[in-house]
Design a protein that fits this description.
Number of helices: 15
CATH topology of the largest domain: TIM Barrel
Number of strands: 30
Helix content: 10-25%
Distance between the termini: 36 Å
CATH class of the largest domain: Alpha Beta
Mean pLDDT: 94
Structural class: alpha/beta
Largest sheet: 8 strands, parallel, barrel
Number of domains: 4
Low-confidence stretches: 656-665
CATH architecture of the largest domain: Alpha-Beta Barrel
């Protein structure tokens, strides 16, 4: 990718979704392979990925495969073989977490640093660039000045080996620094670093202070709202970001279509404003719908820390989708309810998903079975009769005046179930006299040329004044090809009459020629060479937080000057209480209990201290400790005996030879 190009990077649960992401404007797709991806149930065969690659490359879009789990020693060879298969399938890059992969004999496929590598500092980013990673996914918690500092540390944008900065702009937020969460493994044996997170962060907790007093009851205090950087794209570009990533390898087709179209539209507006910048792939899109982030599942939105610490970043009441308010209940009956919409233009449909908050502020879902428009309401809206799918007795707290939200519109779902985008590459068509007949030349917006000749002799057209227009019209029918005619020139010595069937054949042959020229011109990115001598790692000691899970990863860090290398948490060498999660989110701050918030407040200053809090969910207990200097929170706990017992019954291979405490490096 060139320094002036902007890349929209979309997720794909499977090849079909990836193809539609390309059709809706993605410059690149990231997708899981058959194994070793950090989304355990989003795997795809190499054959399916190859099918996606063929489609993406028609538009010079790229395909990245996630291989971003930490690997056991016995998984390194299968991983190496998989990388070879993916390279042969045409994949453009791998997104990795385990540095042991850099010590394997891999094909020259580019490697990207996953967000799981926890990139928060200029020093860490520069190191990853220096060891040959060509694109690095920054931590979601970074502010604009922090991103700019990392960009500056990587050197000039056009320098050889310069890494591309990638940043998440939309989707679900992991409350922990990615790669720094072990709660799932400690409690269930399911490792987030191995693609099997149990999402303890979305559970409700009782929060107690150091004296045992309840601070919050049944609140989802570790659950974040969803990321939305729609208003910050220009600032992110100015800070050095060039790849804009949408989260969602578990998400459905409608989400990927909608969010890709949304950010494609926003980025195209910026590109129109800033001619010095360009798309990272070819073609423009048109849509049958108006993109709207609110239509998909979301926990409401936050721009997180990009503009500095914000107070309202949590989805503490519910990790579910609250939807958008559409009206209020006017009547409750035994078999259904009536509601008046706030906007008379709002239309309800059978199957819509509605919801409301009960007396305890819990979100209650109500799927409609049948809806009926009754007529005008008393307050300017429209009254609807709603018969729910489930019995009315189950909807506690539903009464007259209750605000009703809609979190699923069947009309929207049906719109995105159909063909909803058309992506076309502009071509300039020129029909002229050839050596043996007619010559059709196609030149696309990237400068690639394809041509075809049609031999024969033709009669003059009966209506010479209209002949050129008819030829232009027939040639411009590019149908299911990826091209659209930007202009068609007819430059013939005589106004010939050419049968439509012959023109169609000529156009098809020219399109085949142009597609072949585009395929031949596609430059496959190559692996960036690491600097020599090997760059020193910013620290000489690594704890379990570095996620070193195999001998090759240990060898990698030793080669780069690290003297003490602890095993990953999943190796079960940390059996006592440790930090199971490190996060920039602060429960004290969100509950207005931060000592910094109390500064200058009369009668409060000095009385609020950053003492630990306790989280309780059933039998699960976690301790919150607050590191105020870097403004971070640690969730502390220890691994369960049942997890250790299970591991002892199914031992894992970790480090063929255990390292000495101080290796001679």
């Amino acid at each position: 990718m060139l320094p002036h190009q902007l890349e929209l990077l979309s997720p794909a649960r499977d090849a079909a979704i990836g193809i539609e992401a390309v059709n809706h404007g993605a410059d690149a797709i990231y997708i899981g392979g058959p194994s070793f991806g950090a989304r355990a149930s989003a795997d795809n065969s190499v054959a399916d990925i190859e099918r996606l690659v063929r489609h993406a490359h028609r538009f010079h879009s790229r395909v990245f495969v996630t291989l971003n789990t930490i690997l056991r020693d016995d998984e390194l060879e299968p991983a190496r073989q998989l990388v070879r298969q993916l390279y042969d399938a045409g994949v453009d890059a791998l997104i990795i977490q385990d540095m042991g992969l850099l010590e394997l004999d891999l094909p020259p496929i580019p490697l990207h640093a996953s967000t799981q590598t926890d990139i928060r500092t200029p020093q860490k980013a520069r190191f990853l660039q220096d060891v040959g990673l060509s694109q690095i996914v920054l931590a979601r918690e970074l502010t604009l000045p922090q991103i700019a500092a990392i960009d500056q540390a990587l050197g000039p944008m056009d320098a050889p080996g310069r890494a591309v900065l990638e940043f998440f702009i939309h989707g679900a937020l992991c409350v922990a620094y990615s790669g720094q969460c072990y709660i799932s493994h400690a409690h269930t044996g399911r490792s987030a670093n191995r693609g099997d997170c149990s999402q303890a962060c979305r559970l409700p907790y009782e929060v107690k202070d150091s004296q045992g007093r309840i601070v919050a009851h049944d609140k989802h205090v570790l659950s974040m709202k969803d990321n939305n950087q729609s208003d910050n794209l220009r600032a992110l570009i100015d800070a050095g970001v060039r790849s804009f990533k949408i989260e969602g390898r578990y998400k459905d087709m409608g989400y990927v279509k909608n969010m890709t179209a949304h950010y494609r539209t926003l980025l195209d507006d910026i590109l129109d404003e800033r001619p010095a910048l360009a798309r990272a792939s070819s073609g423009r899109c048109s849509y049958t719908f108006t993109p709207d982030p609110k239509q998909n599942f979301n926990r409401e939105f936050t721009d997180y820390f990009v503009q500095g610490r914000q107070h309202d970043i949590g989805a503490f009441d519910s990790p579910k989708n609250p939807g958008q308010p559409i009206g209020w209940v006017t009547r409750v009956a035994a078999d259904g309810l009536e509601l008046e919409t706030e906007d008379p233009a709002t239309e309800l449909h059978n199957g819509d998903g509605l919801c409301y908050h009960d007396l305890h502020q819990e979100l209650v879902g109500l799927q409609t079975n049948r809806v009926q428009k009754l007529g005008p309401g008393q307050d300017g809206g429209v009254v609807w009769r709603v018969l729910p799918k489930d019995p009315m007795a189950g909807f506690k707290g539903l009464k007259r005046g209750t605000t009703i939200n809609r979190n699923r519109s069947m009309d929207w779902v049906r719109t995105l179930d159909k063909k909803s985008a058309d992506r076309r590459i502009g071509v300039w068509m020129a029909l002229s006299d050839g050596a043996a007949g007619l010559l059709l030349t196609l030149t696309d917006e990237d400068g690639h040329v394809g041509s075809a000749e049609l031999a024969g002799h033709w009669e003059q057209a009966q209506h010479p004044a209209q002949a050129a227009d008819k030829l232009r019209e027939q040639l411009g029918r590019l149908g299911d090809t990826p091209f659209r005619a930007s202009d068609t020139q007819v430059q013939l010595a005589q106004p010939w009459f050419v049968p439509a069937s012959q023109l169609n054949a000529l156009r098809r042959d020219a399109v085949v020629s142009l597609e072949a020229a585009r395929a031949a011109a596609y430059v496959r990115p190559q692996r960036t060479a690491p600097v020599e001598p090997p760059a020193p790692y910013p620290e000489d000691t690594l704890t379990y937080l570095a996620n070193v899970f195999n001998q090759k990863a240990r060898d990698f860090y030793a080669k780069h000057g690290v003297r003490v290398i602890a095993a990953a948490y999943e190796a079960h060498e940390e059996t006592g209480a440790v930090s199971l999660m490190i996060t920039k989110h602060c429960v004290r701050y969100s509950l207005s209990l931060c000592p910094k918030q109390a500064k200058g407040v009369t009668g409060v200053q000095g009385t609020v201290k950053a003492e630990p809090l306790q989280l309780i969910n059933g039998k699960e207990k976690l301790t919150l400790r607050f590191d105020c200097k870097p403004c971070e929170m640690h969730v502390v706990g220890k691994i369960k005996r049942s997890v250790l017992q299970q591991a002892s019954e199914q031992p894992l291979t970790f480090y063929k030879i255990r390292p000495k405490a101080h290796p001679a490096h």
